[in-house]
Amino acid sequence: MQYIVGALIIGIVIGICLMYLALCQYFKRIKTNYSKTIITLQDELNYYRRNENIK
Hints:
Elements: H1 2-54
């Protein structure tokens, strides 16, 4: 019985660690996507501002 409880506890701890690593990777990917989008939007805004100044 003690072995079963110990195995369950170890399994839960390993599962929590794996979930934490997966979430870290997920949020890192979201952060890079958002920063690429923001840079693109800033470039477009600068382009339109330059065109408005030319007119």
